[in-house]
Design brief:
about 375 residues, alpha/beta, Rossmann fold, 3 domains, 7-stranded mixed sheet, 5-stranded parallel sheet, 12 helices, binds flavin-adenine dinucleotide, binds uridine-5'-diphosphate
């Protein structure tokens, strides 16, 4: 078959790779001037810079871990995030170090008693605020969650789905690992080469700076199947209404100091600081920590509007419902199109989930 893949991000690249192995002829189009979508990394001042924010690969899915290890070698990076609340530092995720810094408690029993005294007792938390209060209580919610969450999402924590905060572990152990997964790391040499390798095939052609919407009808006419990893509402010209997204602005600079903040990721959890986190890229790979300069990125959350990059879907009930309507609409109005990835499936997917979804799509649709 002649297949068009729209988007050279991780979903598009895995799909193209697998379909090329089956012998199909693949054209990949990408509107940006580079491949790899949001996992794109590039060398700046001797270090791999994550242009679209910190990307740490973590998974408990053996099949996905084996899959990526065919193409790249991972370092042993473990994400250990520090939170800065009005100048006071706390360890994340919420663990015995955090509880000690917050309350002076030393044992799990003391920490649990503190949490129990402040936690909200609800069976089924209705929103992110209730979920956070029921997991860790008021002090941690006020200092480490509320401000960060409300600036990140541009809405009240009471208007956000509970699952977003369940991404973060809560532990009664001294363990600062941000993730619970079996495997974790960052590809040595960055992520872009992973996507380069996925797309390296004589039957895959990649065209950059090519927007699907510049020739929508011609593309739909010329290809047997289209795999679309952009926004599903844009694909249908917002016919059923706009889905909500959250955007970001990345402000990256090279500094003449070997060590700016001493850690890869520091979160600013108060409401007043306009950015959510500062990333110091050299600390993603120990091999780079000797360089005399450093590259840092401030991440500013932003409102999304048409034409702005849609980094996060806002998976609240209303938007999930609208997405379902688009899915139904798609089966009737674009049967030759398969929607995939974070934007096409409108899901807050991590990289490993995107890979699993792409492999599943190829297995079930071809
Ligand atoms: P994308 O990477 O968005 O790729 C889609 C591509 O399609 C883009 O390149 C886009 O330009 C292109 N495109 C869209 N529309 C068109 C069009 N009309 N024509 C042509 N091309 C088009 N995941 C983790 O596992 N660990 C992390 O630490 C992590 N950190 C993250 C931090 C941030 C700030 C963000 C935003 C995401 C993070 N993620 C992380 C998630 C990760 O980025 C995604 O899971 C993954 O990149 C999604 O791949 P994708 O192919 O679905 O989408
Ligand atoms: N979060 C928070 N304080 C933090 C870090 C995260 O309240 O210091 C909340 C916030 O609501 C965020 C969610 O936890 O959106 C998930 O955090 P994660 O680090 O997984 O976000 P991502 O890396 O996807 O932006």
């Amino acid at each position: 078959m002649k297949i068009l893949v729209v988007g050279a991000g991780l979903f598009g690249a895995v799909a193209a790779h697998e379909l090329a192995k089956q012998g199909h002829e693949i054209q990949v189009i990408e509107k940006r001037d580079h491949i790899a979508g949001n996992i794109y990394t590039e060398e700046v001042a001797g270090v791999q810079v994550h242009r679209y924010g910190a990307h740490i690969f973590h998974t408990s899915d053996q099949q996905v871990w084996d899959y990526v290890n065919q193409f790249v070698t991972f370092n042993r990076f473990t994400n250990e995030v520090v939170a800065n609340y009005k100048g006071t530092l706390y360890n994340l995720p919420f663990n015995m170090f955090t509880f000690n810094q917050m309350w002076g408690v030393r044992t799990p029993e003391e920490a649990q008693a503190k949490i129990n005294a402040q936690r909200l007792a609800v069976k089924t938390p209705a929103n992110l605020e209730e979920q956070a209060l029921s997991l860790v209580g008021t002090d941690i919610y006020e200092r480490l969650i509320k401000g960060y969450t409300e600036k990140q999402w541009g809405r009240k924590a009471t208007e956000l789905p509970a699952f977003i905060i369940r991404r973060l572990p809560v532990r009664l152990t001294f363990n600062n690992n941000y993730f619970n997964d079996t495997y974790q790391g960052i590809p040595i040499g960055g992520y872009t080469q992973l996507v380069e390798k996925l797309l390296a095939s004589p039957v895959i052609t990649v065209s950059l700076q090519t927007d699907f919407f510049a020739a929508r009808e011609a593309y739909l006419h010329d290809y047997d199947k289209v795999i679309f990893t952009g926004m599903i509402d844009q694909f249908f010209d917002y016919t059923l209404g706009e889905l909500a997204y959250r955007s970001l602005r990345f402000d990256t600079e090279v500094l003449d100091t070997p060590n700016y903040q001493g850690n890869a990721v520091i979160n600013y959890t108060d409401a007043e600081t306009p950015f959510t986190r500062i990333i110091e890229h050299k600390f993603f790979d120990e091999a780079h920590t000797h360089t005399m300069q450093t590259v840092v990125t401030h991440e500013y959350p932003q409102e999304w509007s048409r034409g702005v990059e849609p980094y996060y879907p806002v998976n609240d009930p209303d938007n999930n419902h609208l997405f379902k309507q688009y899915r139904q609409y798609a089966t009737e109005h674009a049967p030759q199109v398969i929607f995939g990835g974070r934007l096409g499936l409108y899901r807050y997917y991590n990289m490993d989930q995107v890979i699993a979804a792409a492999l599943q799509m190829v297995a079930t649709s071809f």
